What does this fold into?
Amino acid sequence: MYVTQLIDENNRLKTWRQITGEAGRSSKGRVPLWFNEIEKKMIKNDSREVHSGYELIREVYNRYNNNIVYENYWEKLERDFIGRDLEELLEFDNRFNIMKMSFEDCRGLLELKNAFMQLGDFKQENISLYTDESKKNGDNGIGWVVMDENNIIGKGSFKIEGKYEVWELELIAIIIGLLIIMKGAKVNIFTDSQVVLDLWYKLIVENRIWSTRRIWNIKSIGLWRWLKWLMIKLEWDLVYYKVKKHSGILGNELADGLSKIALMTKEDRNLIIIKLNQEIDWEYNLYWKKELIKEAPREFYKLYNQWSYKAEFLSLDVCRYYRFNNSIEKIDWVRSIRIIMKAFNEENTDKNNSDNAYNIKNFFEILPVATLLNKRNPELYQSGRCIRCNYTIETWIHIWICSQADTSIIQIINTAFESLKAKLDEKDFRIYYNCHARLLHILNEKSKVVFNGGIFHEAIKGIVNKRLFLKIEDKIFKDAIASFVEDIHDMARKFMWSERCKSFNEWELRQGITKQMKKASKLHQSSLPSLGHDEKKRKLFIYDALQRWTGYYINNDIVAKSIWYEIGIEDLWKYYTLVTFRSSNYASNFSILD
It folds into this structure.
C-alpha cells in the first residue's frame, strides 16, 4: 500500500475503516501504530483534510522506506503468517511497540525484531530458554538459546551498552530472550545465576518486598519492574531452574559461546541500548537528570551522602592544596587513610582519642605551632617566631626542618628504612642496591599537596605517595612502603613533635604563661587559615563536585569510594579575591640530602 492510496479524491485522509473495507478485511482490533503516526502528521483539521504540497508527502515517504508505508502490507503479512487471524497480526505490531518502549533506536533492535519474526514460524507451547552473559574490559555481552525439546528453534547474541554487573546482564539476557517468544507461552528458564534465582522467588514468585521501604534495598529494581510489567502484558508462564556453569548442558554451553561472540563483535550490528519508558519503570526507581540509577536507591543515597561529605571536606580552607591537586598528584589514598585513621578502628580510650586528635590536626597542619598560637592569643604569644632556632617563624612545615631540633628528619627516614629492609628480608623480597638512595631522592622532591613542603612532609602526615613504590607493582612491596611511611609518621611524632612540645612548655614557664591564663584568654581569630572566599562560592563548589562525581559514576565503571580523588575537580574552584602565598626561603632551600 502506497501512501498516496491513503488519500481520497477530496484530499482527505481515509479512515482505518475505509482502508480495511477497500482491502476486504475486518477493522476490528487496535489501529496500527504506523497509521496513528500518519494521522498526526498529515491531518490539518477535523475534516481530515491533509496538508497540501509535495514537500510534506516526500517527508512522509522518506519516513517509510522507498516511498512506501508498508508495500503490499496484507500480502506480506499473509505470506509470513498464513493461517493466522487479525488478532495475531495486531499482536505482531504490539510486540514491536513494546520493544520500542524498552530500547533506543539502534541496529540491535532491528536484529531483535527479525529474531521475533523468525521464531513466529514455530509452535511455542512448552519451550526452554538458556541464557548467559560475559563481561570484559567494560564491554557487556549476552547470549540466549530457545529450544523445543532437543531442537534449537532460536538463538541470538547482543552487546549491551552501559554499566552493569554480571547478574544484571544475566537478567537482561533472560528478558531479551523472552521478548522474541509469543504471548501466553510456557517457558522454562535455565540460569546459572543464584542472585537472579533468589530475587526471582522474592520479587515474583512470593511477590514480597515491593513496598518502597524494602524495595529500595534491591539493586537495579528497574530491570525487575520491566520483567514484571512484561509478564503481565504478555501473559507468560515462567518457571526458573538453576544450572551449574559449564556443566556440559547443550543450551547453556551455546548461550555461553554466543555471549563471548557478542563481546568480540566490533560492529554495532548487535548493539542494544536499554532505555525504558517511564510507563514501565517509574515506580520505586531513582533518577538523576533523567538517567535511571541502577544501584539500589537506598545504597545510592548512602554513596551520595558520602560524596557530599567529601565535597564539603575539600571545600575547607585547610584542604586547599588537596583540592587543587587531588587528581594530579598520585596518592595511594586507601593506604594513606588506613594510616591516618588507624586509631578510629580501635577501642575508645584516652590514648586513642589523643592519637586521633594528633593525626587529624597533623593532617590538616593545625597543630598548635607558634604562628597559630600568635593568631589565637596575641596577648600571650606576641610573636610567631620559632623558640628553638629563633631564626624564622614556626609553621607546621618548619617543625620538621628546624636546625635546632634534637632529632633530624633524615635520622628518622634512615631508621624507618632499616625497618623496611628487615620486613622485606622476612618476606624473602630482594630490593635494588640503590633503593635507599632512590627513596631519599623522591622524599626530597617538592610536594604538590603540601604547600612549600617536600614529599617527606607527606610521609609525616601519613600520606603514601605512589612514587615511593618505585614502579614496582608487587603487593608485598607496596604494603612494606606503606609501613615505611607509617614508621616515619609515628617516629616524627614521638621524637620530633614531643621534643618540640617539651621545649615549648619550658619556654612558656619561663615567660610565666600558665594553663589558666590560656583558658581565660579570648579567641580573637580562628586558628585555621582563611582565604577570604564567601559561602556562596563554597556551596557552588560542593554542588558542582557532586554533579561531576555522580554523573561520572553512573556512566562509567569506577569504584564509588575512589571517585573523589580519581576525578579532578581543580577547575571547579573559582577565586574572585586572589590570594598570594609567600613561601619561606628557609623551607624552600631545605634538603634532607644536605
